[in-house]
Queue: 4 jobs
Job 1
Amino acid sequence: MNGAHDLGGMEGFGPVVPEPVHIPFHSTWERRVLANTLACMAMGVWNIDAMRASREKLPPAEYLTSSYFEIWFKGLVSRLVAEGLVSRAEVESGISQGPGRPVPSVLTAERVLPALAAGAQYTREPDRPARFAAGAPVRTRQMNPSHHTRLPRYARGKAGVIEAVRGFFVFADANAQGLGPQPQWLYTVRFDGRELWGSESDPTLSVTIEAWESYLEPPI
Amino acid sequence: MSGDHEHGHDHDEGSSLSEMELRVRALETVLVEKGYVDPAALDLIIESYETRIGPRNGARVVAKAWLEPDYMDFLRRDASAAIATLGYGGRQGETMVALENTDSVHNVVVCTLCSCYPWPVLGLPPAWYKSAAYRSRVVSDPRAVLADFGVTLPVDKKIRVWDSTAEVRYLVIPQRPAGTEAWDLAALAALVTRDSMIGTGLVTVPGGAA
């Protein structure tokens, strides 16, 4: 989806404002947004790709004027409502109108540390050989899917080289749509800065992305 | 208890902060009442990312890599496994790759599409890492972004920007500063900044040459 989240190469946002000290949260509510987002993900009703898709569906003007934890909050609410777990009225009033519906899992306190330490497994056993090898020239597809994708606009239809074959990974585009993991080979693809940004680009620049095999085709 | 007590780092106006505080509390109340989330679990998640999972973890990985060539080799071969030997791993760090800065190459990490970041070694990302300013520009003009951090690289140094568009997570291994040959792991780790492990900073010795 060509949403406002796909920021690479845009201009006009001004300088980056560094913050040397590690400050994970800037207010109490940000803490609660993170915790509720992770706990709700652990219910097992949706996956991480679907969660990202929910944030990207915010209207562009709203996305760009929301702080990052606001984006997380809005994405979480829209996902909970879409899944029928809560109603908009409940979220706005803070008053539950009835019992929750059954969910596959509830993250209890004793399971938190093991769950964070375990993470989630995104790799799968390959059922076919990789189409491309490290060093192979490739071209990214020109595509504008209406659904979640992880091929940024700035890197579509561009010539690059396979930097590394990373493994066989759950395919985000399918997983986000609830179509199952549909794993594919995943590659790191390197592009020269001038291929992405033109002849005026910094000649010392190269940019890599992670690309699933279906994003790629042999060079023309 | 209220947003009025939040101060020091907020860029928002007080009114919008209070509104978010209320909205998030309302949501959490409903989620708890419906039995979807456990308040004690929420507190433990927050505590983990405030006290245990942060950039000091990554700094130990870097210091060990500087001290032990075998460990650096292990990081090159299988960064996830090498990092796990120090007890770090799990959520948002399942597939780690280490990027070595050298005299000729400088690495910088970004997620242009959201905020992908190696949580087990660096903790939660800083606000600027998630900002439109950083995500938009570092892929097209990294030297300008580095200048915002006060970092200037030699004009012929190659800059490699790594856009984290899948579940691979990157840790930059910055260059070890001169004059630290006799330092031990704890002293070296104390030098390593979070930004140097993202690629927007360099490691320097306080009071010494860069």
Note: Chain B touches chain A through 89 residues (CB under 8 Å).
Job 2
Amino acid sequence: MISEVKLLQRREARELDQTRPPALSRVWNITKYILAGAWFGVALVKGEIVSWYRLQEMFRFESFHMYGVISSAVAVGALSLLLIRKSGIKGSDGNVLQPKRKILNRGTVIGGMLFGMGWAMTGACPGSLYALTGAGFPAMLVTIIGALAGTLLYGIAKKGK
Amino acid sequence: MLEILSKPWPWYVAGPMIGLTVPLLLLLGNKSLGVSSSFRHICAAVVPARRFTYFSYNWRNEQWNLLFAGGLILGGVFAGTILAPNEDVVINADLQQYLATFGITPTTAPIPEALFSMDSLLTLRGLLLAVGGGLLIGFGTRYAGGCTSGHSILGLSSMQIPSLVATCSFLVGGLTMTHAILPFILALEI
């Protein structure tokens, strides 16, 4: 009788161990996103997407650079999504790999225009703010704080509705 | 090799790298590229959630997004040290002439020091651009449900109409700022 309980306990412990990912995979689950971010950040800085000048050139139609970056990024992204769909690759949890669905409302236009203004002022999108901070431009931290304040304002304004 | 890599990378290298982030994040954990939502998660982690419905969710479930933002900083460090450029940024001649009238000249930095440095934050011009611009970025991206990454890259890649509308709106806002408002801000001498 006692040994039976012990056996059961041992089996439970073993099962518990299986649901809990091993240490190495837990570390990987964290590092993989940091590495993906670093890949993106290097591309933003070295590709001059963080450049205030390139942004000004884009909005003044004085250079092809940013248009080239955005259209080639979208082309590669779209092609990859097509390949993922055709190949039927599933996530490790068995779910279909699918990009988040975006919604269309008044905010898409008004919010979009407000962001566009901030983008032209600072020459930076949210990704650039982080990458530039890392690249040694601490003044960008002030803009990040501004962006957090703007987010907070939005959260407060949304509550009022 | 390092010498070539430390020069600015052409659009046909940087663009595809950025595009590949979309499948990369999907394959790594079925995540959708997006950066501006990290602002929301940071706020949610700090403010008392009960008081604001917009911030009352378990931000820990979105931890990956904050790790991704941390990676962006790390990538910036790498690009700004080992791959740091040693030549001044070359810009369009018309733009150079235009900016010179406001006392702005390009250096090796991607952003003009006359506008975005710790010293310039003490001027009205610098403060307005850094803080005002930040506020617009934070409020605007959350209202629009995404930024250039989430809408213009991920959304357009997956052929979503809302993202096309958002991207056009980004451009309308940017063009308005650049041509109708920015000249007055740049002309501020205090």
Note: Helices of chain B lie at 2-6, 11-29, 37-46, 63-81, 93-100, 124-144, 148-157, 161-186.
Job 3
Amino acid sequence: MGLLSLLRKLKSSNSKDLKILFLGLDNAGKTTILKTLASEDVQHITPTQGFNIKTVQSEGFKLTVWDIGGQRAIRPYWKNYFEQVECLVYVIDSADRKRIEETGLELEELLEEEKLCGVPVLVFANKQDLLGAQQASEDIRGIGPYTKLEGQELANSSLFSKNRRGYKGRYGMGSEECFKEMITVLLSPKLVLSIIHLTMHDHLACKLDSSHKSAVGKC
Amino acid sequence: MRLKKFLLRYYPPGVILEYEQSGTMKSKSIDLLDLKPTTDVDMLLDDIVAKEPLITPSKMEQVRKLILRLQEKQAESVDHHFYLFKVLRAHILPLTNVAFNKSGTSFVTGSYDRTCKVWDTASGEELHVLEGHKNVVYAVAFNNPYGDKIATGSFDKTCKLWSAESGKCYHTYRGHTAEIVCLAFNPQSTVVATGSMDTTAKLWDVQKGAEISTLSGHSAEIISCSFNTTGDLLLTGSFDHTVSVWDTTTGRRVHTLIGHRGEISNAQFNFDSSFIVTGSMDKTCKMWDSRTGQCIGTLRGHDDEVLDVSFDFTGQYIATASADGTGRVYNALTHHCVSKLEGHEGEISKVTFSPQGTRCLTASSDKTARLWDPFSGKCIQVLEGHTDEIFSCAFNYEGNIIITGSKDNTCRLWR
């Protein structure tokens, strides 16, 4: 990639080249989703110390996805990446019940960022298949209090009406669908917050043999 | 005119004469760019005496000693084998650029974590953390040869000038309206030039901390800027496919180098400022006559974008780095390809010559930096150990220490 290509990704050249930001706590699965989108191997992913950038092309659209590490120490640096963001994707580990409050608080802070004002937000409720994962509705309830969002009601709340209009939930989508959903969100002026529920199998189905699948199921 | 003192310049080889003329001290240099360890010293001396009135027959012995010393210097350290000296867990986010001071006793690293750090080369200790930028510190530079100041350019749109000794911030230069991505001190260390994604370059006064001029004319982001050896001209390379040559005293554009069909990746003067080399995403490099601004040659051969280009210290050779994973070395006069640097398993984003010109150093996305013999194209050494791609690399002035900065948040010292 090199520093020069970082600069090229920094500038917004044409309208079909869109910058997407992936944020969320550590271990939420941001890099896995990114790599799946780019059809890359997801078996050996380590905590992201800085960031990963991938450009994914489909249907005439070029999405430049910035995946930023989620560890506590580097969260203060998320704001370095807010310039010219077309869509924020917030990834939640639905099985990590202990940190649902923490993830909600982080999302709340993001929604109040001036530079992200009006930027559509897509919440990926990841790891739906793991034991102990929150149900779709619980996810919303879990993070709702911290984001002042709760289902359809949220659509009319003050924070929401100011810069985000609309809400939508969706279940069990594969990476293809995720991509399409991002495009939909980007193109639709009305739909500005969307929640998608993902399972590990969505990412891994195409990549893993059955033995690995069961290993994933155990964790 | 009375000759007062000789000064020796190793890279590129030369002898500086300090002399008195009607009461004031002046200096001029005898550039010995063609000097080789095998050069016949007597013939060279005759040549110098014939051309330079300050070198009278009585001074010849002194000059002979100086030339012999330069030749000795050229012959040494050719076979230097580098080993990993230190791994510095420098930053909590990826590094951007790195730079040595002239003596190589300290160096600076810039990072995505918004800081810049000054390091002691010998011990690997952190000397200063330069804090204050509100976003990525992308460009860093020492005011060589003095080395008492550091300039940093940031995505927060400002440039800061720091004391290298105390780490104190002297000035914050405000005025750019987008990220600063390149900067350079003039050789006199009186001016800092910055290039920005806002399509302009600016010149700033080092002493006063004020803007001197804005160089506008490019229609897209400026991503490289560099002064010539005397500091009266500045080159800016842009994503608008052109390179501009600016007169730094007037702030006027002297030439626009038009011809590339892709974004510019880098542009440099050779040592005597007669030629300019430019690298581009159009897979070629071009050579330009800096007096006329005319293109005098196109260096072809790469199968993908040229990501970096560099003259050696004497200006006789050019090294290129490409996204095709190879480097090339060209003769600057004949424009012939001298060698291909093949072996990296990913794109090469940086290339530089050792000050002696006997080695090329490349940094790649394959997580290695490599040393090459520029004439045979043979890979001499693979510097392995980084766990992510290498963004930047540099030699010290002696050519016996290398720093590499990586996306893995570390900086490695090799000696």
Note: Chain A touches chain B through 16 residues (CB under 8 Å).
Job 4
Amino acid sequence: MTPLPDVEQLLLEMAENLRTRLDAHHVKDPAMVGIHSGGVWVAERLHALLGLQQPLGSLDISFYRDDFVRIGINPQVKPSHLPFNVDDHHIILVDDVLYTGRTIRAAFNEIFDYGRPAAITLAVLIDRNGRELPIQADIIGQRMDLLTDTHIKLTGPQPLALHFKNT
Amino acid sequence: MTYYNIQFDKNGCLKHFLTIEGLKRQLLIDILDTAESFSGVTTQSIKKVPLLRGKTVVNLFFEPSTRTRTTFELAAKRLSADVLNINVTASATSKGETLLDTLHNLQAMHCDMFVVRHDRGGAAHFIAQHVAPHISILNAGDGCHAHPTQAMLDMFTIRRHKKEFSQLTVAIVGDILHSRVARSQIHALTTLGVNEVRVIGPETLIPCEAETLGVHVYHDLREGLRDVDVVIMLRLQHERMKGALLPSEHEYFRLYGLTEEKLAYAKPDAIVMHPGPINRGVEIDSSIADGPRSVILEQVTHGIAVRMAIMSMVLSAQTSSRSNPEGEIN
């Protein structure tokens, strides 16, 4: 099995790649949004490393999921919080693991219910195989090829570490 | 007792919401927590989430209501459900159709949830026993029995202002006898573990077995309000009163109407609540209803988030396979 990468090292590389990408696209004053809960932890680090001016936002996509009727509502749902105007802002959406793509689809829908962003850049710590929707990340910490019954999970927020879990 | 087990499906998930009686504290807290996250939906520029898209909610009101029906309708719409409002008093029952026949007709239209208000206690239970298994029933008030969503929005309002239930003394004032709201509030408050619940009112308007619900009974408003954190005023329900229970409205206001002078007996930071509609000058003075300690309009606002939470919880219990409890879809 692929050895687990060091999260802190990946975060430094992601921040560097993000900076390069934002400069290349002449993006000024982007806003960052993390997806609960692992994505928020990753976003907190990237937000600090990049020294972004806009306050960090967080999304809980529970109300936008396509499998709600199957799994129900978790009362621990955190309210989504976008402390900036979404309209015409460049948004960096951050998650820990990109797998089926369904979370990102739900996050897009939720962001668009707050307004019309100028653009969205997707940054993920881990990009693993198993996509069910045509969604790809712009900034990737590490790609991993895993068996379908193997899941990778980020624990945190202090320290951030990756773990394998078999189902 | 099977009486309230009907509220749960075979997996122990909330399926109908008929009464607070018999519900566990954790479930009430889950409802309040879920409502807290739904309250953020109103800050979106599109005040809607797609959670109940494709579901049909029927507001089945056998008794008039404005606030409750409207907030149920708004809650359903903010969850993207389709809503039908049926004012039954003006429709089929007046043509002789039985309650069950009305229900079977609505069922044949493939609806998913009935929000029921009826002037007879137990009506929502009766309907829950007779509908098809995929339909959820929410009790929006049945006779003098229960009004559980109102009680939950009141708990939500109290928690927003007071945080810790175990420290609180809450007084419910007025027509306890005819009040389904009071019954549901008492069950909710005792389940959530408040320090003390007091009911205050004339002997004719307090049920004689009130103390068995775990409350303290007062007949003097000033004495009852001493050092309370929350004052809940109730409306005099003339429409349910049979016989002469009160000398006059004027006499009632003199003894049990909330005024600045009487409210001074409560704690300085006490909040004043009322489920509405308020009768100014009968149970509450206008200066209190519109004053800084009144949270009456907040209660209305919170009703939407609380009803969104309960609606989504009962409809999410509809399918039996909870295959992915951690909900990892990534």
Note: Residues 319-327 of chain B have pLDDT under 50 and may be disordered.
